[in-house]
Design goal:
By secondary structure, the protein is an alpha+beta fold. Helix 1 crosses helix 5 and helix 10 packs antiparallel against helix 11. The longest helix has about 55 residues.
Length: about 600
């Protein structure tokens, strides 16, 4: 009987230890959960601080105060906005803090006249994060090698690794702590910690409770457990492995399916359903060539590796096209042998493929767009250098050189602006401008490029408000829309440029009687590199960047842009920008 009881007692003891470790793991997970909540609150506070900083940096009152070093005005702003510090080149109205959640440069024209600093990082911020996250453990903020707590600040000998619970000594207390970087690439971090003594006490309590209950049941179930122990152990391990595999496959972002040696699909995970739209119930237990569209292509082009990560190249992914219910998908597929079965993993590469096609098309388009003006410039220059031409012909050639140079400059400007938009380095001035003056100057410039059969009319109401935005960027958007209206009206016709007040917005619209845009293309024309006539069958050039730049510029000025069109019945492009009230603009 003793020999039977000893293994069971060992199992109970081990299970008690497992329960204690699990309690410690639960404590670590709780620390991570509470840290995530605190990080979310911190992110919201940081976002609010950046919004406040951007708002103040764009305020004319703040700009004038920092530009003229108006100490009183700066102090009034800081009193009205607790946690805000305005700093100029020569004055500072609040004591500098070690760090702030947000720092925005204040620009007047292209000159930096100062900075807006929002929400100092200190004990008050830690308290605010703790209150917002409603955590039960202790929260701290590592800043410059020191740990800022709600009531005190202590030195740290070491900082916790990001996202991984570790033992950490805080002052004189041994703790279990986990941290997350305050900003990407920063050594500063938010830290959540709990005294190790509390965790050890909870784990020990759980362990002893398990031991007491287990030993109490051991006497009554000793014979049954001993007889069934091997089967129970095997079943438990198998079940755990199966459950773990199912959980992993259920949460895996890549599609996974398994095909046995007879070519029958045995597994189809949720990611495979989401990517292809084929449900597992309709795919599993069916031959792969019937259930999976494009299976012959996958089987022929995707090599099967003997094990994951083979260096002989057999485990490299292959990208293959698959047609699912008329929808073309490009799947990046890799296969590995598993006994008598083959495991396939794939991801959706359709977007990457489309982007690569657009990039290739853009390179071809820009090469074509550059070749024409360069050839014209070279031909005109060689003619002027090698021939003694009449004055009129020389003037014509010089005019052509100037025109083609402007065309080249416009192409380069489009590419540069698109790059600045992608990197976020494009500056947009927050100011007001006269929309009528802008529209009339743009139309005057566009009329010089019109053919005989094309006219431009302007429709402007008698009373207009000023517009909040960047006048030069708005001019760029309007010129681009007018150029498109002219280009896509090859047979001429009437182009109308109109202004209208819609609520607190001012609407700019450009309407033409040209070719129109098919309904299916209207959602894509604002995408980067997209061109309505990619093969230039109608002889209409362009880089595919113009409307993308228009959309991003309008968005940067807190506006919106859209298109209304029917194929063959003309097109109307419109965008709206915030406007001042009419009464306010009259007083100004």
């Amino acid at each position: 009987m003793l020999l039977l009881a000893l293994p069971l007692a060992v199992v109970v003891w081990a299970f008690g230890g497992f329960a204690g470790r699990r309690e410690r793991n639960n404590a670590d997970q709780q620390l991570v959960k509470e840290l995530n909540a605190a990080a979310s609150v911190y992110a919201n506070l940081s976002d609010d601080a950046h919004v406040t900083a951007k708002h103040l940096a764009s305020s004319l009152r703040v700009q004038r105060a920092l530009l003229h070093n108006d100490r009183r005005a700066v102090e009034r702003v800081e009193r009205a906005r607790p946690g805000v510090v305005l700093v100029s080149g020569r004055i500072r109205t609040a004591r500098p803090q070690p760090a702030f959640l947000a720092r925005i440069d204040v620009l007047v024209g292209r000159k930096t006249v100062g900075h807006v600093l929002v929400t100092p990082i200190g004990r008050r911020l830690v308290q605010e994060i703790a209150d917002g996250a409603k955590q039960t453990d202790q929260l701290g903020l590592v800043l410059g090698g020191r740990l800022i707590l709600q009531g005190r600040t202590v030195d740290l000998r070491s900082t916790p690794r990001v996202g991984e619970p570790v033992d950490l000594r805080v002052g004189t207390m041994d703790t279990r702590a986990v941290g997350v970087a305050r900003e990407r690439g920063s050594s500063d971090a938010l830290v959540m910690f709990r005294p190790r003594s509390e965790i050890s006490a909870a784990a020990s309590s759980i362990r002893w409770r398990v031991l007491v209950v287990g030993l109490g049941l051991a006497g009554a179930l000793l014979a049954i457990v001993y007889a069934a122990a091997p089967a129970i152990a095997r079943s438990r391990v198998t079940r755990q492995q199966r459950d773990q595999a199912e959980r992993v496959l259920a949460h895996l972002g890549d599609g996974v399916f398994v095909v046995d040696r007879d070519g029958v699909v045995r597994l189809w995970n949720p990611a495979a359903e989401a990517i292809t739209g084929l449900r597992g119930a309709t795919v599993c237990d069916r031959p792969a060539d019937e259930a999976i569209p494009g299976w012959p292509t996958i089987a022929a082009f995707v090599p099967v590796a003997n094990r994951p990560g083979d260096r002989d190249g057999a485990s490299n992914a292959e990208t293959v096209p698959v047609d699912v219910d008329g929808r073309e998908l490009w799947l990046s597929v890799v296969a590995v042998a598993l006994g008598d079965e083959t495991v396939y993993a794939f991801r959706d590469a359709t977007h990457d493929r489309r982007l690569e096609d657009l990039r290739s098309q853009f390179v071809a388009t820009i090469s074509h767009e550059l070749r024409t003006p360069l050839a014209s410039l070279h031909g005109a220059a060689m003619t002027l250098r090698e021939h003694d031409l009449p004055a009129q012909m020389q003037d014509d050639l010089l005019e052509m050189i100037a025109e083609q140079s402007n065309r080249l400059a416009s192409l380069v400007e489009e590419i540069l602006v698109a790059g600045q938009l992608d990197s976020g380095s494009l500056s947009v001035v927050a100011d007001t401008f006269d929309p009528e003056e802008l529209v009339r100057s743009v139309v005057t410039a566009a009329r010089s490029r019109l053919g005989k059969e094309t006219t431009i009319d302007v429709s402007i109401p008698p009373v207009l408000p000023k517009v909040h935005g960047d006048g030069e960027r708005t001019r760029q958007v309007l010129l681009n829309l007018l150029d498109n209206a002219i280009k896509y009206s090859p047979s001429g016709g009437r182009i109308e440029v109109a202004l209208a007040t819609v609520g607190d917005q001012l609407r700019f619209s450009v309407r033409d009687d040209g070719l129109g845009i098919p309904v299916g293309e209207q959602e894509r024309i604002f995408d980067k590199f997209y061109r309505l006539d990619p093969d230039q069958r109608r002889g209409i050039g362009g880089t595919g960047l113009g409307l993308y730049i228009c959309r991003e510029l309008v968005r940067s000025m807190h506006g919106r842009i859209w298109v209304e069109s029917d194929r063959g019945n003309g097109t109307t492009f419109a965008f709206e920008l915030p406007a001042e009230p009419v009464a306010a603009s009259r007083v100004a």
